[in-house]
Amino acid sequence: MKEAYRDRYGSPDVVQVRDVPKPEPGEGEVLVRVRAASVNRADLDGLGPKPGFLRPFLGMRAPRDHRMGWDVAGEVESIGPGATRFKPGDAVFADLASHGGGSFAEFVAKPEKAFEPIPAGLSFEEASSLPHSAILALQGLRTRKGRTVQPGEKVLVVGASGNVGPFAVQIAKDLGAEVTAVCRTAKMDFVRSLGVDDVIDYQQADYTRSGRKWDWILDTDLRHSVFANRQVLRAGGRFISLGGDTGGILQGIVVGPLSSLFSDRWTGLMLWWKPFNRPDVDR
């Protein structure tokens, strides 16, 4: 079979396609024929890698694992010994972040617990876009203690036109929030089509200097400092970042929570991510 791989860090140009043996499902595994696999920001960041401090975990000079791809949707081809949840022909999807990745291939063999049935009415392409980004969006609109966006609250989604942002916009609207989106000029019409109440073009305006305030800010890739974001939070507000460069990550892990200790406003990095968490998949 064919699979995408990279043997060094760099731009997307380092990605190649190679022929490898078709995998066989092991104990408790299923073999899935891949019908669709979406590309996430996380896949692109992994090429860098971004942030740089991940190199000791991923490989200092080159990636230890050459496989690529997290999101997958396809059909069960065969089942391994002890696998009972699915049968050949079942349509399934998954986020393979916790199972070694490798969805950019013609087949994947993974534990059956990694997969869930594709809901009726969803195409493989649609299903493959959900596992990573939609779950991140849902969890990013909920605190570690379970507080979530309330009807009537003002929500700002920064990076509303990428992978996570469009889901965050739609989920926040479903929760009854008044949603403002931040994106670049070329994406404004697309973001408006998602049902936002307002759009800020970051190429023309800086939301941290707008004089406006929000109850909840979800930033998919920290571009402004934690302190700048605190300035535009309303009393009791929450600022949650999903990523950024090394400096942004450190701000989210250290500076944000420390600055929240004696405040009713919380700022920081979302550290409660549970990949493909079944209750959230159901939601």
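Next protein, fold it too.
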Amino acid sequence: MRKGLLIAALFGVASIVSPAARAAETGTLKVRFVYAGSAVKPAALVVDKDVEFCGRHPLVNERLLVNPQNNGIQNMVMYVYTGRGGSKLPQQSESDKTYELANEKCRFEPRVVVMQVGDTLKITNPDAVGHNANINFLVNTAQNITIPPGAEKLVKIEKPEPAPIPVVCNIHPWMIAHVVALDHPFAAVTDEDGELEISGLPSGEKLAFRLNHEAADGALKEIKIGDETVSVSRNVVELMVKPGVNDYTITIPAGALKAD
């Protein structure tokens, strides 16, 4: 009887420890992207449409935003690359989240939306003027949506896209955003300090990551990871992911990003 109780107790402990053990097998990637040159002050935009409303807001060119305090690069996209020569990931379940893309103060907010197959893009318009969201999907059905003041439209992501997809407002041509649609959740975009975090990654191996920024002047040729200069092919870089937290600093040459 004691033997049976002992076996039952051991199985009980195993069931409790098992999730923690599995969690320890994954890694979290924390990356800070740094601009190698001097931060450039974004230029003011020429507002020539709906001037009475849009002209109230201090609109600037957001193509390249670099934090002058720490040279962090905002809106850098990083995701596990699973294309030719990339990493193989376990089969992922479809997601079912909703992400908002607002036409707010005559600009898109946020500038970059990272999504997964199964997610929904909710395009809103809190402004007092009408807007348009022209989404030039390559794989999903292209959208060209008019959104009156106070209205919203829903767009379902049914398939992954091979690259970030631009979203433009045909009424206000300075407005632009990007949608990143993938078949896995291992992606992120940097904040105003140039930092991002990707969790739940398979660990104990090198993974291929693709880097993307709308201000990239062609493909990246080399970057610095820490103090080491690394050659880059097709904007893909390999990083070792160990169990737990993995911190990296990646420096992008100033000449690789153009403000206009």
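About the second fold: The longest strand covers residues 26-35.
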